[in-house]
Design goal:
Number of helices of chain B: 11
Distance between the termini of chain B: 12 Å
Number of domains of chain A: 1
Order of helices and strands of chain B: HHHHHHHEHHHH
Strand content of chain A: 15-25%
Largest sheet of chain A: 3 strands, mixed
CATH topology of chain B: Formate dehydrogenase/DMSO reductase fold
Radius of gyration of chain B: 21 Å
Number of strands of chain A: 11
Strand content of chain B: under 5%
Oligomer: heterotrimer
Shape of chain A: elongated
Number of helices of chain A: 7
Order of helices and strands of chain A: EHEEEEHEEHEEHHEHEH
Helix content of chain B: 55-70%
CATH topology of chain A: Alpha-Beta Plaits
CATH superfamily of chain B: Formate dehydrogenase/DMSO reductase domain
Chains: A alpha+beta, B mainly alpha, C alpha/beta
Largest sheet of chain B: none
CATH architecture of chain A: 2-Layer Sandwich
C-alpha cells in the first residue's frame, strides 16, 4: 500500500557524523556484502571486471570540498536511503511495491510487486533507489531489516551492517522518533541536520555537520611561547632548573 | 533526466491520441461532426492506435512488463497508477462511442454521453500523465505550474491538428476546426516559450549545500563513490550541452509550431486536396516536433541527485 | 568484563541494538530472522597488513559474509572497506589454478600447467645446485607476507644472505628511525594512547598504516574533543577530519619538526626530568675533532657511559640513579674534552637556521603557524598534563604513586618514510616526542610489546661468511651498530645483492627489495642464478621505473640467456609479475591456509599487552594450489636444509601448521606465544603444545595477554614491565631502554669516513657517509630537489593508496574496483589555472625519467606545488582477470613509470639507488614533475601502453554479470 501511514510507531534511522567520517568505504562494502545475500539479494554487478561496470549498492560515499570564508575542508559523505517520513518514492509507486512500514518507519520494496517503472527513483531526491537491471526491479536500503530483528544473530549484532562496520564510529542507529533515545540526544547535541529540508520529505536520517570552525571545534588556547630572556638564556635556565 | 525513447514516444503519442479522442468524442457525440463510417473508423483507429502504441511503448520502460497489471492498484496515491486506470478505463466509453458513432452512425443521446465520457477520460488521463511529472519535487523544471497545462495544451493541439487533417482528408474540412488547430498551435508555442523562459530563470532552492547539509560557501564534488556511471547517472544524470539544447529548441519551434502554423494558414486559402495535404503535413510535422519537444522535456530536466555528483 | 557490558568499538549507546529487538508485527511478510550462517570461523584478515580479527560466516558451503571480531585487540569488531570485500578477493577469477612452467619467452604469459611434484622437483634441482656452489646466487625476496620469521629463517638455513621483505620500499625509514632512537617505532611497534591523548599530530599518513586502529582511535579523539593536527600535503582521509590541516611541501617535514624543536628549546618548554631518566641527553660525548673517539660516548673504565655530576662536579656513571647529571656545559674527563648530548642538541637546534622564519617558505607553512603549533604542543604537554592513579616502580627501584602523562601523541608514516631524507626526519619526530616527554607515558605514544627493545636492537645481520651447504650464523636481517657489522668485503663491495648493510645503505634493516632486479640484471655486485619472490608485484606497482624493470626482467646476454637466469614466483593471482616467472607456484587465498602472526615478526600486540594470531583454513581450495609457506617448508625438506629435514632426510614438518606448533626458535620459544606448555598454561616460553592451534581457534584465532595496570606505561624503565619482558623472551636483560637522541652507531660510520677504524668506506663513499650518518637528526633536501632543474620540474608528485585498497593486492576485486577503477591526477585549482588546465583535462605528467598520461581533477585540498594520485589503480591489460576495456588499463595510470629507481645525477661517478642514504628506503616521493595538457587526439586514454598479457592455460573468462548472494536467497526462499 503506497499511502503513507499517518504516523509510525518508531522512526528507525541512521545518524551519520560528517565530522568523523574519513571516507574509508567500510560501510559501503559491509552493506554490499550483507545485502547481496540478504533480504534483497543479490545486489547484482553488471560487467564486474570490465569497463562499464555498474553494480547495485545501497550506500555510497562521496567526497566534497566545502569552502567557506573561514577556509576549506574535505568532507566525506555517505549517502543512502533516509527512510523519510514523507517519502514520495512510496506514494508514486503504482503497484504497492514500495511501502513505508507503520511499525518502524522503514521504507521497503516488495520485489514481487515491483514492475520496474523506476518512477520511485525519479521521486527520490537523494538517489537512494538502485535499479537492478538484471532482475528488472528496484532495490534499496532495508536498514538491515533482516539484521536488526534477527533472532539468529546475537543480540549485540542486531544493528545495520554499516553501523557495525564503521571503524571511526561515524554511524549511529536508533529510534529518532523517541526524543529520549540516545540517537535523538546525539542529534540534539550536535545540531544534526536534514538533507534538502526544503523539499518536505522529512528524512528520518540525520547528518552531524563537521565541527571545524564551529563552536565545537577542538581548540587549544595556548599562549605564545616566550623565549627565555633571563640570565644566561636557555642554558642558564637549564642550570637553574636542574639545581632546584 | 535520461530521455528514454519509449517514454518520449509514449507521452507524445498518447497525448495526441487522447486529444483526438476527446475532440471526436465531444464533436462527434454532439453531432458537430456528422457520423461517417470511414472518417469515423480512421479517426477512432488513429486515436486509439496512438494510445495503444503509446501504452505499449511505455511498457518498454518497465523492468518487469509482465507485472504491468499491478500498476492499476495504487490509484489512491500514485499519479502513474491513476494514469493507468484512467487510460484503460477510457477505452470503455471510447469503445462504446466507436460502436455508436462509427458502426451505428449515431450521435446524440447515449452516444453523446459515452462520447463525452471518453473525452473526459482522455482529459483525465492526460492530466494524470502531466501530474506524474508535475508532482516530482526533485525535478524543478517539471514541478511547476507549467507542466500540467502543457500536457493538456499539447494534447489538444496535437489532437486538434490530427482532427483537422482527418476532416480535410475526408473533404469534411471545417474552418472552425482549422482555426482551432491554428490557435492551439499558437497557444502551444506560447506556452512552450513561457515554460522555457520560466525554466531558464529558475532559482532552485535545492543546492549542493542543502543536499549535503553543508551550510554556506561552495560545495564541490571531488570524487564520486564509483568511477563508472551507475544507474542514477544513466537515468537521472543526463546532461545536454547548452548549444545542443538551443539547436533542439529551434528545431522544436520550427517543426512543432512555426511550420504547422504556416501550413494551417495556407490551408485556409487552398482548395481540396491541397488544404488536406497541408493539414496532414502540419499534423505530421507537429508530431515529429513534439517528439523533439518531449525529448528536450526530459533532457533539460535536472534531478536533485545530480547535485551529489557535481553535475 | 561483564556480559551486559557492550563489546567492541562501536558500542556507544547510539550504536546499540534496539532495546526491544523483537520484530514488530508489520504483516508485510518480510522474513526478519533469516538464518545467517551454518558456521562461523574466526580467523585473521589479510586484505591488508593490519591483521584484524574476522568472523567468517559460511552458509551452504560458501562464504556468506565477513565481519569484525569484537574481541580482537586490533579491530574490536569493526571492519574496513577491504575486509568486507574479502569475499570478492577469495572468489576472484584471477586466482591461479595450478603450477605453471614457462613455455614462451619470458613476459609472454605462455605457460603450461604442471603437477606440484614436477614444480617442486624443478625448484629443488635448481636451488640444490646453487646451495652446493654459492648460496648467494639465490635471491629470495618476499612482499607483504606476514611469515618473515619463517622465510628469513629459511633463507638463513639455505645459507643465502640475499633475503628481505618489502619493508625497504615501504617504511624502513620509520622502523629504523624508531628502533635506532627509542627502541620501538610507529605502527607495528607502537601506537598513540588513544584513550588519553589530548593533542594528536599525524605526519604523512597516506590513508593507511594502519587501517582500523587509527580509525578507531580517531573516532575516540573526536568523541572526546581532542585536537587532531595533520601535516600532509594532501587533505584526504584522516587528514580531512583534522582540526588543523597543515598542507606542507613534500619532504620538508624535518624542517618543520626541527623548527618546533627550536621554539620549544628557546622557550624552555621541555621535560628535563624525562630527558635525564630515559634518554642519553646527559651522556658525555667526546669533543676532539680529528681523533678516533671524537663524537663517541665517554666511557668509564668498565665501559659504562659517563655523565657529569653537577653536584659532585665529577664524572659519574650515567646509569647511576642517584647521580645529578648536568645537561649542559663542557667538561674535561680523563684528559678528553666532552659535552653532554643535550648541549650538542641545544647548540644545533637553537641556531637561527632552525627558526620558523628560516624554514617557513621552504615548508610552505607560515612561521606563525609553526609558532602556534609549538605553543599548543607545550601547552598541552605541560599545562594539561595528566596523572593516572596507578602506583609503579621504576627500574632503579623508585616507587611512584602515580603515572604522569604529557597527553601529546604523534604518528607518522609513508609521507615521512618515502623520501631520501626520511630516516632523519623520522628521528626528528622522535626527538620532538622525547623532548616533550611523551613517549610511553599516559596520553603519549606507547610501545607495543615486544617493544621497546635496546636502541638499536641486538641481532646483527648475518651473511659475512657465506659457504656452500652451510646455514648463515644468524638471520639475514638485523641491526648494525657500526662499520664492523656491515656486510661488505675487504674493499667495501656489498655482500648482499640488494647492497643492504653496505656503505650505500648502512642501516638497511629491511633490505632493499626495490634494487634487487636492477642489481641482479647488472650483475652488480655479482650475478645471481635464481630470483625467488613471493607476493610482490615487482613487474608493476611495487617497482619504480616500471618500463625499465620489465626490460631488465626480460633482457638477455650475448649468448641469448636471460641476464636473470631463473625466476620463481609465488602468488595467488594472475598479477603483472606472474608472466615474468619461469616457474609459478600458485598460492591459496587467505581463507584457505594457515598463517601465524608471530611475536617473532610483527604481531598483533596492543600497547596494553602482547598478542599473536593465526589464520586457519576456513574453506578448502577448489584449485590445485598450495599455501606458499607449506611449499617452502617442503622445499626446505627436499633440499635437506637443517631445520627443515631430519637426519634421515625426512621432512621435519608436515606443513606450515605443523611448523607453527612444533618449531622452536630457541628452547621454549616458538612462532606462537599463547597456550604453550604441555597443558597449554604457559605464555611466552614453554614446551610445545600439540593442541596449540586448536586453542587459538577456540579463542577466536588469536591470543592476547593484558598487562597489569602498573605495566602499561613507562615500559622503557618500568620494573614490572621489564621483568615481564625478560620472562617472555622479548629482551634478554631487564635493563632500562635508553632513548638514543644522539646515535653513537651513526657516529662510528662518520669516524670510519674520516679514516678511523679497521672497516672504512671506499674513498668514493666517504663524503656521503660523512654527510648523512649524522648522529643528530638534521634536514637536507630530498635528492631529486637538488639534482633536477626545478624551473623545469616545479611540482612534487605523490601517490597514496585509497583506503579501500591500501595494502590489498591489485584492484581486480569486483566490488572495490567499482569504487576506484580510474585514478585522476589531483591538481590544486590555482596551479591548474596558472597552467591553463581545466577540470577533466588529459595531461602529460613528465619527470626526468619519462612521461605518463592521465586525467586531472581540480581540488583545493592539496599543497599548491604538489600533484597526487591514487596508486596502483593502473593495471596492465590482461592481468588480474580484468577485461580489455577495463578502466584500469585504459584510463588509469601508474606514476611508477616516471619514478626513477636510481638517483638522478651521477654522484661519485655513479647513480645510486633512489633511496635514503642511511637505510636504503625507496624514495618514492622525491619525484619532481611538470604537467602539460596533451594534444586533443591524445586525450581519453593513458600512455605508455603495454602489450596485453596472455591468459594462463585453462583460465575461465571473467563473468559478465555477478549475482553473488542470489544462491543464498533462492535456497532460503525454497526452504520457506
Amino acid at each position: 500500500m503506497t499511502c503513507l501511514p499517518a504516523q509510525t510507531e518508531k522512526k528507525l534511522g541512521l545518524v551519520i557524523d560528517l565530522d568523523t567520517c574519513v571516507g574509508c568505504q567500510a560501510c559501503v562494502t559491509a552493506c554490499k556484502e550483507w545485502n547481496t545475500g540478504g533480504h534483497m539479494a543479490p545486489l547484482t554487478d553488471i560487467d564486474p571486471y570490465g569497463g562499464r561496470v555498474d553494480g547495485v549498492w545501497f550506500n555510497r560515499v562521496h567526497s566534497y570540498e566545502h569552502t567557506t570564508e573561514q577556509g576549506g575542508r574535505t568532507v566525506n559523505f555517505p549517502r543512502s536511503c533516509l527512510h523519510c517520513e514523507r517519502p514520495a518514492c512510496v506514494t508514486v509507486c503504482p503497484t504497492g511495491a514500495s511501502y513505508k512500514r507503520a511499525s518502524d518507519g522503514i521504507v521497503l520494496v516488495d520485489e514481487n510487486k515491483c514492475i520496474g517503472c523506476k518512477l520511485c527513483s525519479w521521486a527520490c531526491p537523494y538517489g537512494a533507489r538502485e535499479f537492478d537491471m538484471d532482475v528488472g526491479v528496484m532495490k534499496k536500503c532495508t536498514l538491515c531489516v533482516d539484521r536488526i530483528y534477527n533472532d539468529n544473530l546475537a543480540t549485540e549484532d542486531r544493528v545495520p551492517a554499516c553501523v557495525a562496520a564503521c571503524p571511526t564510529s561515524a554511524r549511529h542507529f536508533g529510534d529518532l522518533g523517541d526524543p529520549a533515545s540516545a540517537i535523538s540526544h546525539l542529534v540534539e547535541e550536535r545540531g544534526g541536520v536534514e538533507l534538502m529540508p526544503e523539499l518536505g520529505y522529512q528524512p528520518t536520517n540525520k547528518y552531524l555537520p563537521p565541527r571545524a570552525r564551529t563552536e565545537r571545534a577542538a581548540k587549544v588556547d595556548a599562549p605564545a611561547l616566550e623565549p627565555i630572556r633571563a640570565d644566561g638564556g636557555f642554558l642558564g635556565w637549564i642550570d637553574r632548573m636542574l639545581s632546584n | 533526466m535520461h530521455p528514454a525513447y519509449s517514454v518520449v514516444f509514449f507521452t507524445t503519442a498518447t497525448g495526441a491520441g487522447y486529444g483526438l479522442l476527446a475532440l471526436l468524442g465531444v464533436l462527434g457525440g454532439l453531432g458537430l461532426i456528422a457520423p461517417e463510417f470511414w472518417l469515423g473508423l480512421v479517426g477512432m483507429a488513429l486515436s486509439l492506435g496512438l494510445i495503444a502504441a503509446g501504452l505499449l511503448s511505455s511498457t518498454g520502460h518497465l523492468g518487469r512488463p509482465e507485472r504491468a497489471w499491478r500498476a492499476f492498484s495504487q490509484w489512491r496515491s500514485s499519479w502513474l497508477s491513476r494514469e493507468g486506470v484512467a487510460a484503460v478505463a477510457t477505452f470503455i466509453p471510447a469503445g462504446l462511442f466507436g460502436i455508436g458513432w462509427v458502426l451505428m452512425g449515431k450521435s446524440g443521446g447515449w452516444v453523446a454521453i459515452v462520447g463525452l465520457m471518453a473525452a473526459a477520460g482522455g482529459v483525465v488521463t492526460v492530466c494524470a500523465t502531466g501530474m506524474i511529472y508535475a508532482s516530482l519535487k526533485p525535478i524543478a523544471q517539471w514541478h511547476s505550474r507549467y507542466t500540467l497545462p502543457a500536457y493538456l495544451i499539447f494534447s489538444a493541439m496535437t489532437g486538434g491538428l490530427l482532427l483537422n487533417g482527418l476532416l480535410r482528408s475526408f473533404g469534411a474540412g471545417s474552418t472552425a476546426v482549422l482555426a482551432g488547430a491554428l490557435l492551439a498551435t499558437l497557444a502551444g508555442w506560447g506556452w512552450k516559450l513561457a515554460t522555457w523562459h520560466y525554466n531558464d530563470r529558475l532559482e532552485i532552492p535545492t543546492t549542493a549545500n542543502t543536499a549535503t547539509g553543508l551550510a554556506g560557501g561552495t560545495v564541490r564534488s571531488i570524487e564520486w563513490p564509483h568511477t563508472e556511471e551507475n544507474y542514477l547517472l544513466k537515468e537521472m544524470g543526463f546532461r545536454i550541452a547548452r548549444k545542443h539544447s538551443a539547436k533542439l529548441r529551434r528545431m522544436t519551434q520550427v517543426l512543432a509550431f512555426a511550420v504547422p502554423a504556416i501550413l494551417l494558414v495556407i490551408a485556409f486559402a487552398l482548395p481540396w486536396p491541397f488544404a488536406a495535404a497541408a493539414s496532414l503535413l502540419a499534423a505530421l510535422m507537429q508530431f515529429a516536433g513534439m517528439l523533439v519537444e518531449r525529448w528536450l522535456f526530459f533532457a533539460e530536466a535536472k534531478h536533485t541527485v545530480t547535485l551529489y555528483y557535481g553535475r | 568484563m561483564s556480559l551486559a557490558e557492550p563489546r567492541g568499538a562501536n558500542s556507544a549507546p547510539s550504536q546499540r541494538p534496539l532495546a526491544d529487538s523483537q520484530a514488530p508485527d508489520e504483516g508485510d511478510g518480510v522474513e526478519t530472522s533469516p538464518s545467517v550462517s551454518d558456521r562461523i570461523a574466526k580467523t585473521t584478515c589479510y586484505m591488508c597488513a593490519c591483521r584484524c580479527g574476522i568472523d567468517v560466516h559460511i552458509k551452504d558451503g560458501k562464504l556468506r559474509y565477513i565481519n569484525g571480531n569484537k574481541d580482537h585487540p586490533v579491530n574490536r569488531g569493526v571492519i574496513c572497506g577491504k575486509g568486507s570485500a574479502g569475499i570478492m578477493q577469495h572468489y576472484s577469477p584471477a586466482r591461479l589454478r595450478k603450477p605453471l612452467l614457462r613455455t614462451g619467452p619470458r613476459g609472454s604469459g605462455e605457460f603450461r600447467e604442471i603437477e606440484w611434484d614436477e614444480a617442486l622437483t624443478i625448484a629443488t634441482e635448481r636451488l640444490s645446485a646453487i646451495r652446493r656452489t654459492d648460496p648467494r646466487k639465490l635471491a629470495f625476496f618476499t612482499g607483504r607476507d606476514q611469515s618473515q620469521s619463517l622465510t628469513g629463517w629459511w633463507a638463513s638455513q639455505f645459507g643465502t644472505p640475499n633475503f628481505a621483505a618489502h619493508g625497504g620500499f615501504c617504511s624502513v625509514n620509520m622502523a629504523a628511525g624508531g628502533l635506532y632512537t627509542i627502541g620501538g617505532s610507529f605502527w607495528e611497534f607502537g601506537e598513540p594512547d588513544w584513550d588519553n591523548t589530548k593533542y594528536f599530530m599525524l605526519f604523512g599518513v597516506a590513508e593507511d598504516h594502519d587501517s582500523n586502529p587509527i580509525k578507531i582511535g580517531l573516532g575516540k579523539l573526536k568523541a572526546r574533543g581532542a585536537k587532531v593536527v595533520s601535516i600532509n600535503p594532501c587533505r584526504t582521509g584522516y587528514n580531512a577530519i583534522a582540526d588543523d590541516w597543515i598542507g606542507i611541501r613534500p619532504g620538508t617535514d624535518g624542517l618543520f619538526v626541527l623548527a618546533l624543536v627550536h621554539e620549544l628549546l628557546k622557550a624552555g618548554r621541555i621535560d628535563l626530568d624525562y630527558l635525564l631518566r630515559y634518554t642519553n641527553a646527559p651522556v658525555l660525548v667526546v669533543q676532539h675533532p680529528g681523533s678516533a673517539d671524537d663524537g663517541l660516548f665517554m666511557l668509564d673504565g668498565d665501559s659504562s657511559l659517563l655523565a657529569w655530576d653537577r653536584v659532585a662536579k665529577a664524572p659519574v656513571n650515567a646509569a647511576d640513579p642517584d647521580a645529578k647529571p648536568a645537561l649542559t656545559g663542557n667538561y674535561t674527563v680523563n684528559g678528553r674534552r666532552c659535552a653532554p648530548v643535550f648541549q650538542l642538541i641545544a647548540d644545533r637546534y637553537l641556531h637561527e637556521s632552525h627558526s620558523p622564519e628560516a624554514v617557513a617558505e621552504r615548508c610552505g607553512v607560515g612561521a606563525d603557524t609553526i609558532r602556534r603549533i609549538a605553543a599548543e604542543l607545550a601547552h598541552v604537554a605541560f599545562e594539561q598534563a595528566i596523572e593516572l592513579p596507578v602506583a609503579w616502580t621504576d627500574r632503579a627501584g623508585r616507587r611512584h604513586e602515580t603515572m604522569k602523562g604529557r597527553p601529546v601523541s604523534m604518528h607518522a608514516m609513508r609521507g615521512i618514510s618515502a623520501h631520501s631524507n626520511g630516516f632523519h626526519t623520522c628521528r626528528a619526530i622522535h626527538l620532538l616526542q622525547v623532548l616533550l616527554g611523551t613517549v610511553d607515558v599516559p596520553g603519549g605514544f606507547r610501545f607495543k610489546p615486544p617493544y621497546p627493545r635496546c636502541a638499536p636492537p641486538g641481532p646483527k645481520p648475518a651473511g659475512k661468511n657465506v659457504r656452500p651447504m652451510t646455514p648463515l650464523e644468524g638471520m639475514p636481517l638485523g641491526f648494525v651498530s657500526g662499520p664492523d657489522d656491515l656486510l661488505v668485503d675487504e674493499v667495501g663491495t656489498p655482500i648482499r645483492i640488494d647492497k643492504a648493510y653496505s656503505w650505500e645503505a648502512p642501516l638497511a634493516a629491511h633490505g632493499l627489495m626495490h634494487s634487487v632486479i636492477r642489481n641482479a640484471w647488472a650483475g652488480d655486485p655479482y650475478p645471481i642464478d635464481t630470483l625467488m619472490m613471493y607476493m610482490s608485484n615487482m613487474a608493476w606497482n611495487s617497482s619504480m621505473n616500471t618500463v625499465e624493470t620489465v626490460r631488465m626482467l626480460t633482457d638477455r646476454d650475448e649468448a641469448g640467456d636471460y641476464k636473470i637466469p631463473f625466476i620463481i614466483y609465488s602468488d595467488a593471482y594472475y598479477s603483472e609479475t606472474v608472466p615474468f616467472a619461469d616457474l609459478v607456484l600458485p598460492d591459496t587465498t587467505y581463507l584457505e591456509r594457515h598463517d601465524c602472526i608471530s611475536l617473532l615478526d610483527r604481531p598483533i600486540s596492543h600497547a596494553d599487552g602482547p598478542g599473536d594470531a593465526i589464520r586457519h583454513p576456513v574453506v578448502q581450495p577448489d584449485r590445485d594450489v598450495r599455501p606458499f609457506q607449506s611449499v617452502l617448508i617442503e622445499l626446505g625438506a627436499r633440499l635437506g636444509l637443517p631445520g627443515f629435514a631430519n637426519e634421515d632426510g625426512s621432512a621435519k614438518y608436515r606443513d606450515y601448521a605443523d611448523y607453527i606448533v612444533n618449531h622452536e626458535r630457541t628452547p621454549g620459544i616458538g612462532p606462537l606465544a599463547g597456550w604453550r606448555g604441555k597443558n597449554g598454561d604457559a605464555i611466552g616460553k614453554g614446551e610445545v603444545n600439540p593442541d596449540q592451534l586448536q586453542r587459538y581457534i577456540d579463542n577466536g584465532g588469536f591470543w592476547h595477554h593484558g598487562f597489569a595496570d602498573d605495566q602499561r606505561y613507562y615500559k622503557m624503565g618500568n620494573r614490572a614491565y621489564l621483568d615481564f619482558a625478560v620472562q617472555m623472551g622479548f629482551i634478554s636483560k631487564a635493563d632500562p631502554i635508553i632513548f638514543q637522541l644522539y646515535s653513537e652507531p651513526m657516529q662510528r660510520f662518520r669516524l670510519a669516513a674520516r679514516g678511523h677504524g679497521k672497516v672504512q668506506p671506499p674513498e668514493a663513499e666517504r663524503d656521503r657517509i660523512e654527510a648523512y650518518m649524522d648522529p643528530l637528526p638534521f634536514w637536507y633536501a630530498p635528492f631529486e630537489d637538488d639534482t633536477v632543474d626545478l624551473q623545469k620540474y616545479p611540482l612534487h608528485a605523490l601517490t597514496q593508496r585509497p583506503m579501500h585498497m591500501y595494502h590489498s593486492w591489485g584492484s581486480q576485486n569486483a566490488w572495490l574496483r567499482q569504487i576506484t577503477s580510474q585514478n585522476r591526477l589531483f591538481v590544486h585549482r590555482e596551479t591548474a589555472a596558472r597552467l591553463g588546465l581545466a577540470d577533466d583535462d588529459w595531461v602529460w605528467i613528465e619527470s626526468i625519467n619519462g612521461r605518463v598520461k592521465g586525467q586531472i581533477k581540480l581540488i583545493d585540498g592539496v599543497n599548491p606545488d604538489t600533484v597526487w594520485t591514487w596508486n596502483a589503480i593502473g593495471k596492465r591489460r590482461g592481468s588480474w582477470g580484468l577485461k580489455d576495456d577495463a578502466a584500469e588499463s585504459n584510463r588509469g595510470f601508474l606514476l611508477n613509470h616516471i619514478i626513477g629507481d636510481q638517483t638522478a645525477a651521477t654522484v661519485n661517478g655513479k647513480r645510486y639507488s633512489n633511496s635514503d642514504p642511511v637505510t636504503g628506503q625507496a624514495a618514492w616521493f622525491d619525484v619532481r614533475v611538470r604537467i602539460a595538457k596533451c594534444a586533443a587526439e591524445e586525450a581519453g586514454f593513458t600512455e605508455p601502453q603495454f602489450e596485453r598479457l596472455r591468459q594462463p592455460p585453462n583460465f575461465e573468462p571473467s563473468p559478465d554479470v555477478l549475482r553473488f548472494g542470489d544462491g543464498f536467497r533462492i535456497k532460503r526462499e525454497a526452504a520457506e
